[in-house]
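Example record used in the benchmark description.
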Amino acid sequence: MSQDILLQGFHWLSWSVKRTAGVSWYSILRQNAQRIKDSGFTHVWFPPASDSLASEGYLPRELNKLDSQYGSELELRDAIQSLSPLNIIADIIVNHRVGRLAEADFVNPSFGEFGVAADDEYSGPKSFNLDSGEGYAPARDLDHRNPEVSNAIITWMNDVLKNPARAGFSGWRYDLVKGFAGWAVELYNRRTSPVFSVGEYFDGDPQSIVNWIDSTHPEPAFRSTAFDFPLRFALYDAIERRRYNYLKYFDRAPGVLGLWSDKAVTFIENHDTEEIRGNEYATAFPGSSKTLQGYAYILTHPGIPCVFWRDIYDAGIFYETQIKRLIAIRKAYGISSNSRLFIDSAVEGLFYSAYIRGDKGELAVKIGPGSWSPSGSQWNPLQDRLLISGQDFAVWGDNRFITI
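Model output (structure tokens):
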């Protein structure tokens, strides 16, 4: 059971702020540290910290070098320290890597060309081992069976990223986990002991994501979590197209949430799906009031919710206040990753409604334009139970003694 609430503490163009505003993204995080803590988050997911060929950080070059387009190593460390005691999650890219001057001249840390998977596009010397996942053409796919590679990655994670004298991260967001085997995630987690681990398995099939989660550790309690892309797609269809019936799959929620809520990191937007990406990977979530409907769902339901920076801090004070209110409601009612969910209705064109039982009371949620309210004596008088509402959404609470 988890009561974690994540903030994705960057967006796709965060790296460019220094050019436009003259201040690094890490400095912006530090300046907003108290604001972030006051919002109720427990974890903040940072952008990739290492030197990269791509400004966004997803083509890592010198892993041990923590000066990037997001700011200097010192600014990174200051930002992390300013957010204490929150857990800071590093975005780590271990599927692939680029060389310093050539395709595979890996330095800082260095490991030989034999660290490149045998079936990579690279024409130079390679490992005898095939890639343990899908190929990635823009960079060299690494051979995680090669001890020189895996030991260098583990040393980087422990001695550089986790080390408070260098950075001070306490958990991992694994990028592009379709590109390498789940046993490698198990190896890295076992050797680095993160407080939190989540994988980006970008797929619309919840069972495929659950299979990946299963592959990350033989013991269920120690398996990684994963982002719930299928739920995000279902929420998009429900809220944008009023296909509220998509939010009920037999008697359970769609996506990983319905199969294994304790391992589902729920979200409605991230740096890959936001509007600036131009629908490169997925259609951006509809904005304004529809964004709040999405957060009314993930912040009241089981799973581990993740809020996107732009949605809370770049959308204006009204949206920040509403999302903070939803976070406060979640905490006050003790909603956790495996709280009991009962879906009352999911009617196409009208609404979705559900009850969620937390440790300190029960919430009732309605999303959609149709008329619905919770029934039962504990909800009377109904007007006293309404905790938050907006265009096409409402949340009620059955415990009148909770102050939010």
